[in-house]
Design a protein that fits this description.
8 helices; 434 Repressor (Amino-terminal Domain)
Length: about 210
């Protein structure tokens, strides 16, 4: 529960009013619409300007109280985001296995929404056989890229365009970039991670893997 939601719930209870009455105090005739917008404001800190302007009078509190609750909500959301990022990174490092990423002319797939439903990054991700020597990783990546292009009957990677090279991620903290012929181009200080596509249903994130299934 964010600080703003806690403030609203507390004031509704203290004033002895219903959610419908709160909606009317906020100037809405449509109660469901008012509740949706208020919930969105509480969860994300985003909402119509007029809603924020009417909250102090609707809750019978001074504007400073609402402002402080909003600032605390932004801080709460920032901390949640940082924690989620840290947890995701820790899980990624723990599950890391050597792999390759095909580099293409487009870093952002197009159309991005269809790409998400089709499985997103599976088109540019190459699993490597880590039981074999590292010296074979380059050859593995080149052969797999050639196999995919032959299977597709075209040179372009779906949604991403023409390949321009690939990166072999050896560890979370070491990667090497190669051109299409397998010549080393650059040594990278960390593994290359392509962007992620996330869908939302009623503002709840849905992982790409679930969209694909």
């Amino acid at each position: 529960m964010t600080p703003l939601k806690r403030l609203i719930d507390t004031r509704v209870r203290d004033l002895g009013i219903t959610r419908g009455e709160l909606a009317r105090r906020l100037g809405y005739a449509n109660v469901a619409k008012a509740l949706r917008r208020t919930e969105l404001l509480c969860e994300t800190g985003a909402g119509p300007t007029h809603l924020m302007a009417r909250l102090p009078a609707a809750l019978d509190v001074d504007p400073l109280t609402v402002k402080q609750a909003m600032e605390a909500t932004f801080e709460h959301l920032r901390q949640q985001h940082e924690q989620a990022v840290a947890e995701e990174l820790a899980a990624w490092r723990a599950a890391f296995k050597p792999h390759a990423i095909i580099l293409t002319e487009r870093r952002i797939p197009s159309p991005i929404s269809i790409c998400a439903f089709a499985g997103g990054n599976r088109f540019i991700w190459i699993d490597l056989d880590a039981s074999r020597p590292r010296a074979t990783f380059i050859r593995q990546a080149i052969l797999e890229l050639a196999h995919r292009r032959a299977a597709l009957g075209r040179s372009n990677i779906p949604f991403f365009g023409a390949p321009i090279g690939f990166i072999v991620n050896l560890t979370p903290d070491r990667a090497i970039r190669y051109d299409l012929d397998g010549r080393a181009v650059a040594l990278l200080p960390e593994a290359y991670r392509p962007g992620l596509v996330t869908g939302f249903v009623r503002r709840r994130p849905i992982p790409t893997s679930l969209l694909y299934r």
